[in-house]
């Protein structure tokens, strides 16, 4: 009889866009794969691939303890009904409340801490509670994956997890055949074009959006050329650091940036730009930077965990200081001054780095090894 593996995340969109390579590999190995996530437009797409979807209501921004207690019971009900042999959990609420539910039923768990978000960026009461909940919940999983060494060490040093059950992954892994270089068109014309920068992230302050806009102002003021600064990403209502549509419109009216909305085909958007920028305050391991580098685009990012791992400063891009628009503007000027040929050389170096260090085959192999060990228990 086929073993069942359940993948649990806070959106079906996340599963379809970031975990599909892993799920297909598990299917090829003979596992029955099911998905547990709130229903969205991507849930039917999972079903079409033979991945049965189970809906669960998760308020990703809520902190109501009664609502979270109900979530534990909802997870327990689903886990009991599905009876998976192993559960793969991602994002904070599945990692915490899904683990609590799994412990009641004795089901093995593999957790993935893909980023710390605001939980470790401040010292508020809700952050302290979240850390306490992590400490309780992370007693449950047999394996806890982290996407950078700094996050793993922080959890270990804070006594939130036992070191022996932790391991590192190179993010969610990149399909380097899907994300490969695409010609912008006539290469001979590129030298004369203005450099086009693109910021890709949720539209919140923690992603460094304010610094990006301020750096754009500085660069536009000081450059003889007129580089372009574009923004791709979704508004994130409910987040305390959200950027509003009114604010974005004011920036556009002043000619600082251009907002291009959201896209289900990020690859095609990336292909049109000269440099991808992410001045984030912290990441698990930035998917955007990996996708851009895999497509042979030079990148600029902050010297923080989750970003610096992708950038070899001066080789495939530049690192700037966190929360420092002047530092970011300086690195943008360096990128502009390079010229098209040198930027292309940077991009090629970045693609080789992704292929050797961040290919999704590495992630799939580690997960498969962990799942086999738990199924054999």
Which features characterize this protein?
7-stranded parallel sheet; Rossmann fold; 14% strand; alpha/beta; 2 domains; 42% helix; 13 strands; 377 residues; globular
Describe the structure.
The protein is α/β, with parallel strands linked by helices. It folds into 2 domains: 4-173 and 359-375, Rossmann fold, CATH 3.40.50; 187-357, Rossmann fold, CATH 3.40.50.2000. It is 42% helix and 14% strand. It contains 14 helices and 13 strands. It has helices at 12-18, 20-28, 43-48, 65-82, 92-105, 125-137, 149-157, 209-222, 245-253, 266-270, 287-294, 325-338, 340-357, 360-375; strands at 4-8, 32-36, 52-54, 86-90, 109-113, 143-146, 166-168, 196-200, 228-232, 258-259, 275-278, 299-302, 317-320. A 7-stranded parallel beta sheet has the order 3-2-1-4-5-6-7, sandwiched between helices. A 6-stranded parallel beta sheet has the order 10-9-8-11-12-13, sandwiched between helices. α3 (43-48) links the parallel β2 (32-36) and β3 (52-54). α2 packs across α14 (360-375) and α5 (92-105) packs parallel to α6. The two termini are 16 Å apart. The model is unreliable at 186-192 (pLDDT under 50).
